[in-house]
Specification:
Chain A: Its EC number is 2.7.3.2. Chain A: Pfam families: ATP-gua_Ptrans (PF00217), ATP-gua_PtransN (PF02807). The structure holds 2 protein chains of 2 kinds. By secondary structure, chain A is of the alpha+beta class. Helices cover 33% and strands 14% of the residues of chain A. In chain A, strands 2-3-4-5-1-8-10-9 form an 8-stranded antiparallel β-sheet. In chain A, a hairpin with a 4-residue loop joins strand 3 and strand 4. Chain B folds into 2 domains: 82 residues, ATP:guanido phosphotransferase, N-terminal domain (Transferase Creatine Kinase, Chain A, domain 1), CATH 1.10.135.10; 250 residues, Glutamine synthetase/guanido kinase, catalytic domain (Creatine Kinase, Chain A, domain 2, 2-Layer Sandwich). Chain B is 35% helix and 13% strand. Chain B has 14 helices and 10 strands. Chain B has an 8-stranded antiparallel β-sheet. In chain B, a hairpin with a 5-residue loop joins strand 4 and strand 5. The longest helix of chain B has 23 residues. Chain B is globular, with a radius of gyration of 22 Å. The chains are: A alpha+beta, B alpha+beta. At the A-B interface, helix 1, helix 5 and helix 8 of A face helix 2, helix 6 and helix 9 of B.
Chain lengths: 381, 415
């Protein structure tokens, strides 16, 4: 909640044991890390905007575990959360991001020309390609914490920035509040519309407050570049198209992002970024690049192969259903994307997707011919 | 033990005093704990920038909250540091309900009703037929012996039930309470209930610790309450930390039941199959008095004042917090076009047999009193008794092909 949480100071009248959450049935990163000692150390702290430890962990207390994936169980309310609550968040970050240390540095590389290949993924198998990331605007608190006033200003700034784009990026903003039925149906048909969050992972973190105030969708005329405003992050930026030309998707992604960033910087509202955590986003799982680059690809045979999971792990890739993070696969078509976010650059992560998917499609073709793929199993990347 | 809370309670007593003084007393503007940055932010974001968009809304809060009231109250906090934005969040997030006009606003603590009186008083007037907390007093009467004709025809009435809520003074309400406070509520209540004897003796089942077998039994008895899924409750922060410190207590006879830490600190329910509403209400009053006595022995008391009666989370439950009702078969009357008007005039409400958010199935309805504040428990139960008897009379007359009449509307307390 905005404007200082003095409610927190009232809780300090109670002992740590009396306030410490019962995490005995929990299985998320926060629950694994949070001890009474850490809780005791951090519970009287607040960020300058008044975000507290209990705010950070509420979603993880309310959601013991998820059937498909190990959830993070904590969120940031503002940029400073990652500093003030580092005793909790650094170990969570380390667990989630392959041992990333508090002293490590993250590199950012949004130069699309550094990507090798990526324009020749077989469209008979790769149905669509997509790259997304998030960006937070410096000077404002994040979706779990922001007030209606802040959210509206974020929306206004975003609209101004996006409306000034031209060429392949020329587009239009559709506020969720005033969208017509026709516009809504079109956005659903295009698979662009995001709905009010129903996942308790998000609602328990306060991200659905005041819906749909200040929320909207912007996309270019070609429907290949899309921005979500005030959903789980201030901005989610998405580049996508049918087929397997990931190189083109990434080019448009990088160019568009950099144009947007330049406009925000001009108005003294750059993106939240630092050299340790890269781009700062609401969920610790999206720190670093915040990038998920992926394809919808037909892997009917490979997906039933005994070594499928191992291949994915070695390629540093992750599978999801075609409905996104909380879904299962349909008809042998998988969403395959990079597993990493922090500790490697955008180019490196998309390179892994491009190379890995290319390899898996070759494996699929081999399996279709009844041949073995044992010699193709990659080493750990 | 109350001792660890005496310092808290003495601080809260000032607030309780304020409650006694009535509405309009200035709220607290506690800035000694706010950081400078938070203060600066307030100036940067004037109330007008934060005023919610309520144009598509249809709840009591949206009807009452003007930009002027919002501007006046936004930066106030209760002694527990609860804010207006936190009170109204549920109403902002839930524009309206198809079956009933929702309240759209909750209290985080007893003092919310004082500090934010300018908003709450309007909502109370709207919801409770013009009851004005500034000038009126609410009567409390738990003497069940006064009820007459409280035995219904069991060919029509399948079950009888009375429920209310009680809050423990000195502890924050479910939207605001910390885990420690919620656990304290559980301890206070469960300790008191362990002192009940005779037909009220019973057992507590903690939601977190119950066995599968216990859970199944409670489901079969229709006693188990689940984690709230209604956004009216979840958006008001009432499901936090579930199922920590939540539980169900019931007597061995399964006729007296208490929910701990669901939408209120406690919900107290007396129920039986059949039509003996008088006995249900007797057990209700007797049980409530005993529980109150048991908590008072340990230095606690219920939240109550003479303007608002019993203080509960939702303004709709102020006063008596009492819903007395029956499941009754009315196959002919329910199809009569005058049914709704008859109910209205009798100050009764129909619901589906699944409770507040459900529609009726078949010919069986949940019929209960509409009002909560401004009339005593005895008055409301008598109204329900008289009303249901009238409905059964109508049903019988329709069965015989006789005429029925819409009764005159019951007089409100409006001045």
């Amino acid at each position: 909640m905005p404007f200082g949480n003095t409610h927190n100071n009232f809780k300090l009248n109670y002992k740590v044991e009396e306030e410490f959450p019962d995490l005995s049935k929990h299985n998320n990163h926060m629950a694994k890390v949070l001890t009474k000692d850490i809780y005791g150390k951090l519970r009287d702290k607040q960020t300058p905007s008044g975000y507290t430890l209990d705010d950070v962990i509420q979603t993880g207390v309310d959601n013991p575990g998820h059937p498909f994936i190990m959830t993070v169980g904590c969120v940031a309310g503002d940029e400073e959360s990652y500093e003030v609550f580092k005793d909790l968040l650094d170990p969570v970050i380390s667990d989630r991001h392959g041992g990333y240390k508090p002293t490590d540095k993250h590199k950012t590389d949004l130069n699309h020309e550094n990507l090798k290949g990526g324009d020749d993924l077989d469209p008979n198998y790769v149905l669509s390609s997509r790259v997304r990331t998030g960006r937070s605007i410096k000077g404002f608190t994040l979706p779990p914490h922001n007030s209606r006033g802040e959210r509206r200003i974020i929306e206004r700034l975003s609209i101004e920035a996006l409306n000034s784009l031209d060429g392949e990026f020329k587009g239009k903003y559709y506020p969720l509040k005033t969208m017509t039925d026709a516009e809504q149906e079109q956005l659903i048909a295009d698979h662009f519309l995001f709905d009010k969050p129903v996942s308790p992972l998000l609602t328990c973190a306060g991200m659905a407050r005041d819906w749909p105030d200040g929320r909207g969708i912007w996309h270019n005329e070609n429907k290949t570049f899309l921005v979500w405003v005030n959903e789980e992050d201030h901005l989610r930026v998405i580049s996508m198209q049918k087929g397997g030309n990931m190189r083109e998707v990434f080019r448009r992604f990088c160019v568009g992002l950099q144009k947007i960033e330049a406009i925000f910087k001009k108005h003294d509202h750059g993106f939240m970024w630092n050299e340790h955590l890269g781009y700062i986003l609401t969920c610790p799982s999206n720190l670093g690049t915040g990038l998920r680059g992926g394809v919808h690809v037909k892997l009917a045979k490979l997906s039933t192969h005994a070594k499928f999971e191992e291949i994915l792990t070695r390629l540093r890739l992750q599978k999801r259903g075609t409905g996104g993070v909380d879904t299962a696969s349909v008809g042998g078509v998988f969403d395959i994307s990079n597993a990493d976010r922090l500790g490697s650059s955008e180019v490196e992560q998309v390179q892994l997707v491009v190379d890995g998917v290319k390899l898996m499609v070759e494996m699929e073709k081999k399996l279709e011919k009844g041949e073995s793929i044992d010699s193709m199993i990659p080493a750990q990347k | 033990m109350a001792s660890s809370f005496t310092r808290l309670i003495s601080k809260r007593n000032t607030a309780v005093l304020l409650a006694g003084l009535g509405a309009g007393t200035a709220g607290f503007l506690l800035s000694e704990n706010s950081s400078l940055a938070a203060e600066a932010k307030k100036k940067l974001y004037p109330p007008s920038s934060d005023y919610p968009d309520l144009r598509k809304h249809n709840n009591c809060m949206a009807s009452a909250l003007t930009p002027a009231i919002y501007a006046k109250l936004r930066d106030k906090v209760t002694p527990n540091n609860w804010t207006l934005d936190q009170c109204i969040q549920t109403g902002v997030d839930n524009p309206g309900h198809p079956f009933i006009k929702t309240v759209g606003c909750v209290a985080g603590d007893e003092e919310s009703y004082e500090v934010f009186a300018e908003l709450f008083d309007l909502i109370i007037k709207d919801r409770h037929n013009g009851y004005d907390p500034r000038v009126m007093k609410h009567p409390t009467d738990l003497d069940a012996s006064k009820i007459t004709h409280g035995m219904f025809d069991e060919n029509y009435v399948l079950s009888s039930r009375v429920r209310t809520g009680r809050s423990i003074r000195g502890l924050s309400l479910p939207p605001a309470c910390s885990r420690a406070e919620r656990r304290e509520v559980e301890r206070v209540v469960v300790t008191a209930l362990a002192g009940l004897k005779g037909d009220l003796a019973g057992h507590y089942y903690s939601l977190g610790d119950m066995t599968e077998k216990e859970q199944q039994q409670l489901i079969d008895d229709h006693f188990l309450f689940d984690k709230p899924v209604s956004p009216l409750l979840t958006c008001a922060f009432m499901a936090r930390d579930w199922p920590d410190a939540r539980g169900i207590w019931h007597n061995n006879d399964k006729t007296f039941l208490i929910w701990v830490n669901e939408e209120d600190h406690t919900r107290v329910i007396s129920m039986e199959k059949g039509g003996n509403m008088k006995r249900v209400f007797e057990r209700f009053c007797n049980g409530l008095k005993q529980v109150e006595h048991l908590i008072q022995e340990r230095g606690w008391e219920f939240m109550w004042n003479e303007r608002l009666g019993y203080v509960l989370t939702c303004p709709s439950n102020l006063g008596t917090g009492l819903r007395a009702g029956v499941h009754v078969r009315l196959p002919k009357l329910s199809k009569d076009p005058r049914f709704s008007k008859i109910l209205d005039n009798l100050r009764l409400q129909k619901r589906g047999t699944g409770g507040v958010d459900t529609a009726a199935t078949g010919d069986t309805f949940d019929i209960s009193n509409l009002d909560r504040l401004g009339k005593s428990e005895v008055e409301l139960v008598q109204l329900l008794v008289d009303g249901v008897n009238y409905l059964i009379e109508c049903e019988k007359r329709l069965e015989k092909g006789q005429e029925i009449k819409i009764p005159s509307p019951i007089v409100q307390f409006r001045k």
